[in-house]
Every structure is written in structure tokens, then in C-alpha cells.
Amino acid sequence: MTTLVLGPSLGTSADACWGPACALLPDDWEVVAWELPGHGTDRRPASEGLTIADLAAGVLASVEGPFVYAGDSVGGEVGLQLLLDAPERVLGAVLCCTGARIGDEQIWRDRVAQVCASGTASLVTASAGRWFAPGFLEREPERASALLHSLRDADDDGYVAVCHALAAFDVRDRLGEIEPPVVAVAGAHDPVCPPAVLEEIAAGVQQGRLEVLDDVAHQAPAEAPEAVATLIRELAEEVRA
């Protein structure tokens, strides 16, 4: 049996981020989708000083045996941490709309300040512009609405904790240590993690390749579920061979 672990992007729930792609995966797979603290169904408070390594450790503790991993944005960063910390557990990874470093500390300081002052609901309009390629809101209003509602409903403290974790994460100098196969998936319209950032991952790891999806910005699993599900199935077949 294939075990697939899925990690969501900041401000989304696992279902809103990955639900459309999950529906296209084989029924006999064991799919484990984890939540960020204060997001989706996980309403527990975030631990003080939360790090990407902490999130990765939580994934390892919740899953038995080897698995294929797929993550979007911060979920992709957790995937990189898992590949570094437990290469014997991660058979391969599909990392979407992410980076070995995302943004810089000032970006995350500004985001934290906005959420502390006005809450996650204040991010919805700007996030719609960053998250979705042109026309997606009109083509798929239900998917877009689910993602934006999950952002509005995210706990402010949990969101802020993940922002601090993102600000501190940088494994650009460690990509060469990653041995399992990695598919780096970029959205052609992603202003947060443009294709060059995903190319850095694909070129830096030992077995990497880049896939650039047209008509996609920062939420590839929801914007292009068919393409992402296909890439996951292909990787699972590759690592089982």
C-alpha cells in the first residue's frame, strides 16, 4: 500500500488545499493530511518558538513506516526538512509552490504586524491576488472560496507562529544532502515562489526535476489538481519500481 502524507500552505486547511487533488488519487492509498497549528481542524495553540523542524517532527511522529510526501508552500518546506531529517522514511516528494527559503525576514515581520493588528481576515483580499492565477476565481469559485475562508478562519496566533517559522527557515546550503527523488512544481504566475525558486530546489537536490504549470499561481493542488495528482502518482510508481 502507498502511504501519502500531505502538507498544506500557510492560511489554508488541509482539505481546502489538497481536497481537489486527493479526489483524483487511487482509493487504496493511505492518505494522511496534517494541519498547521490553529488552521483547519487543528485548533490547538502553537508551541512557543515553533520551527519548521518541529512541524516535520510532528509529521514523523504521526505516520508509521516509509511514505511519499507532497506539500504546498510551507508544507513544501516541511517536506524539505523531512528529506533532510529522515531520508530513510521519505521515499520521494512532490514539493509545490515552495522554496528552500521563502521571502525574507521583513516580509514576515510585516505579515505578523498586520495579523496582530487586524487578524487573518485582513489578509484575504491581498492573498486572493497572490494565491490564484488570472481567471481562477471566476472558473472555480468554490475552490477559491474554500481557501480564502480557511484563511479568514485561521487562528491569529497560529498563523503568526508559522510566519516566524517561515522567517527562520533557510536550507539553501543543504539541498545537496537530499537523496530521495524530488519533483519541484512551480506555478507560472506565482509571485511568492516563482519558477526560479523551484528550479533552485530541482537543481540543488541529488535527484530533482522541475515542472512548471501554466495558469497556476501559489495554490497548485487546488488550481491544477489533475496535474498535481498525476505527478504524485508518477512519483509513487517510480519509487515503488
Provide an overview of this structure.
This protein is an alpha/beta fold and 241 residues long. It has a single domain, classed as Rossmann fold. 47% of the residues lie in helices and 14% in strands. The chain has eleven helices and six strands. The chain has helices at 14-22, 52-62, 74-85, 105-118, 124-131, 136-139, 141-153, 156-168, 195-204, 220-223, 225-240, and strands spanning 3-7, 30-33, 67-72, 90-96, 182-187, 208-213. Strands 2-1-3-4-5-6 form a six-stranded parallel β-sheet, sandwiched between helices. Strand 1, helix 1 and strand 2 (30-33) form a beta-alpha-beta unit. The longest helix has 16 residues, at 225-240.
Could you list some keywords that capture this structure?
alpha/beta; 241 residues; 6 strands; Rossmann fold
Order of helices and strands: EHEHEHEHHHHHEHEHH
Summed up, the helix count is 11
CATH topology: Rossmann fold
Number of strands: 6
- What is the CATH architecture annotation? 3-Layer(aba) Sandwich
Strand order of the largest sheet: 2-1-3-4-5-6
CATH superfamily: Alpha/Beta hydrolase fold, catalytic domain
Q: How much beta, percentage-wise?
A: 5-15%
CATH class: Alpha Beta
Mean pLDDT: 97
Over the alpha carbons, how many angstroms does the gyration radius reach? Answer: 16 Å
Summed up, the domain count is 1
